[in-house]
Amino acid sequence: MPSFFAWAFRFYIKWILRSKTVMSNATAMRKALHSLYIRPQSFSPPTNLGNNIFIDRVDLNAWPLYRVSAVGRGSSSNQRNDQKRDAMVYIHGGSFFHDIASLHWQFIAQVACETNLDVLVPIYPLLPRPVSSAAQINKGLIEICRKSEQPIVCIGGDSAGGMLSIAMAQQLQKTAPELAARLRCLVLISPVLDCSLSHPEVVRLEKDDPWLGIEGLEVLMPMLADGLPMNDPIVSPLYGDTDNLPPIIMTSGTSDMLCADARRLSGKFQGKGTEEPVPGSFHNEKLTFIEKADMIHVYALLRNPEGAEARELIMHFINKY
């Protein structure tokens, strides 16, 4: 049974924020897209992430790029950041048109505090800008890996960022195998895996999803694909090569319509192909899938007991690898 705090956040999303009103209506989605295009959100990190968190700008191309570090005991922030420490790239979600939010920054700060990694946070271009296709973002992310002096050993992201994370890892295998060889793990929080949003299990789960909707997201996907077929791995990494990826941890909730495609990815790792969704948590040496009953989209980022439990498992996974 969900905790009170999980229930309260679900109530807030559904009845106060009314996110589904936008996500399930094409006209409302177009209006929201236009509104954020002409009045963009701030992507600046908050100032209340903790006295031990140090953030600086380390831009490597046209995008802003932040580095988040946790200052160690007895060391200064300059000493911390002068070292060529191993790093994680974290790619935020937001349906491809919302900028990074406080929940993302809080999770990033926790990673920096509880692992031995710095976290690189790219501020990638958002829809409907002409440089915001999946292929263009993928190219920019790989360029960050190429130019970074810090070895990238982990890639992670939530929702839209989860899609960009696994697609990036797949393309690194093809275009920069020497960089792909450095990767030790992937972190996928409620990822988008099939941008067609057409599987019957997605349609079924949408009815219980208080946040996401198919009709609104279908407005975005042609812009994201920018001429690529919807089953191209850059757009829908469910169909990409998973054989050579590093170990993956993936979280999803059963009240998230994207859980359908997470189950399909789990099924793929269980030898059942991409069409059969396999419900329930699963673990082998390549995939740790955590499916949580009654949890909503990106529940692992939320400030409730279930989210805290998921984050603890994620931190343990990162530290393990």
Automatic annotation (TrEMBL):
Occurrences of domain Alpha/beta hydrolase fold-3 (ranges): 88-275
InterPro entries named in the record: AB_hydrolase_3, AB_hydrolase_fold, GDXG_lipolytic_enzyme
Superkingdom assignment: Eukaryota
Pfam families hit by this protein: Abhydrolase_3 (PF07859)
Keyword hit for Plastid: no
GO MF, one example: hydrolase activity
Keyword terms of this UniProt record: Hydrolase
Annotated PANTHER family: AB HYDROLASE SUPERFAMILY PROTEIN C4A8.06C, PUTATIVE (AFU_ORTHOLOGUE AFUA_3G11560)-RELATED
UniProt-recorded name of the protein: Alpha/beta hydrolase fold-3 domain-containing protein
Organism expressing this protein natively: Thyridium curvatum
Source organism phylogeny: Eukaryota, Fungi, Dikarya, Ascomycota, Pezizomycotina
